[in-house]
Amino acid sequence: MSTDSLAPALAKKRVLVCVGSGGVGKTTVAATLALRAAVEGRSSLVCTIDPAKRLANSLGLSALGNTETQVQAQVLEGLGVKPKASLHAMMLDMKQTWDDLITRFAPPEQRERILSNRFYQSLSTALAGSQEYIALEKLWELRRRSNYELIVLDTPPTAHALDFLDAPNRILDFLDNEAAKWLLTPALKAGKIGLSLFNLGSSYMAKTLSKFTGVETLQELSSFMLAISSMNEGFKERARGVRDLLKDEQTGFVLVTGPHPERLDEVTHFRTLLKQNQMEVLALVVNRVHPHPSRALWEDAARLTRSRRTKVEETLEELKVLAEQDARAIAQLSAACPDTPLIQVPRFELDVHDLTALWRTGRYLMGDEQVP
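RE: above sequence
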């Protein structure tokens, strides 16, 4: 077995967080890890943010919702394996999770006031960083209240590492802006209508709200800030819990990327920031790598008629060039991250959309097979 394998982490860790930019296959990797864990005897849950139905379909489910759904053992019979533990999956509903959080922790007299507020609607559906925050909040909640031996989180796609790592701080800045409360409340009580959001300074909240103007907006903002203020200590406590969980020795990060030179700086920067924040990077998974055409393919082409042979060999040459390009990018990534295991998963002929493809992906993640 290759030393560059996620098998040791799958046997020991209690939380795996798959991170990376969009379109690199984080959902596939996350589902595969949870599947392998269940088959090998650890009860597991994969929590995805992906709005597509690919994960549900891959696990033999018609749909996923905001609660855990068990994958029936008989679904795996086609793989020729029998899971030794349960496998569950869920797809995080951002709005529903925020609403559940408010319903559980807001004072009864404030709940409807918060849920119906326009600024809360923005926070729970569209505010930058809100999806990352609520995903981590959900992870913390699941780890505290559930008995799964392994939880795998498929994080929201992010173009910049700080979008993920700073999300809790940005949301707390929005919710706990003392300057906003200090300025808004007296002004509204005095009946002033000319308050400028410029006076709120350069906070994240002020920048977010700068597009709104008018006394009605200020009244809604003031109402929201006052209503949510009773929850601020709770938000801070859970944010500390999230940070502690991400740094815990039983938590590990799997950084997923593609074999593209333009992603090199992004991946190495993300890895550096995770390490600087005392978060363990278990492996770099380079997904959809073009394998070198095998000798057997060249030999098969040589036996074709001249016209067909020429076309097939042209295709093999193109695949060879792509494989060489990927190999150079992977070599650069390996040199930049020498102390982090690097795992390659090949580009399959078809997109990963069923259990067979998930299981095949797992053979590369576990080190049972390697990209030629």
